Amino acid sequence: MKHGRTVLEAKRFGCHSCPSDAPLIDAVTKMVEHDISSLVVTDAEGYLAGIITRSDILRGYLAIDDWQRQPVGDYMTRDVVTVTPDDLLATVANLLLDHHIHRVVVVRDENGKPKPLAVVSDTDLIYHMVKEIE
After folding, report:
1. Residue 1 and residue 131: Cα distance in Å, rounded?
2. Domains of the chain
3. Model's pTM, two decimal places?
4. C-alpha dist (Å) from residue 79 to 31, 75, 99, 103
5. How far is it, in rounded angstroms, from Cα 126 to Cα 134?
6. How many angstroms separate the CA atoms of 91 and 9, rounded?
7. How does pLDDT run across 40-57, given as a tens digit for each residue?
8. How far is CA 26 from CA 13, 15, 35, 39, 68, in A?
9. Which of 27, 7, 9 is closest to 17 using CA atoms?
């Protein structure tokens, strides 16, 4: 992976999201429809509130019989590791390894709050590693 390549140079922007008050069934349905493993969770103004993954939804499923109606906000991860479009892919790789996670959310500062732009996953990094040697 070219150590000088930035997130902006490597990633198409846009991400799938849901509000924190959405029921888990809506989140899991969206994940299945788009064949993705996580959703960015946003507040009422569209700012980053958290992230919910398939593992989080499984926790909800095992925790309560009526899991489908439980709000995403009760199961999401609130402390999201974020990067900016100008961060290097090598920085992303280090964050993934250091935090034992599979994805980071790309954000831009808007009025002092993080506005989600994209998600960069370990799969994205592997893709760029292969493209570099082709």
Report:
1. 8
2. 7-133 (3.10.580.10)
3. 0.90
4. 21, 12, 11, 13
5. 13
6. 14
7. 999 999 999 999 999 999
8. 23, 16, 14, 11, 8
9. 27
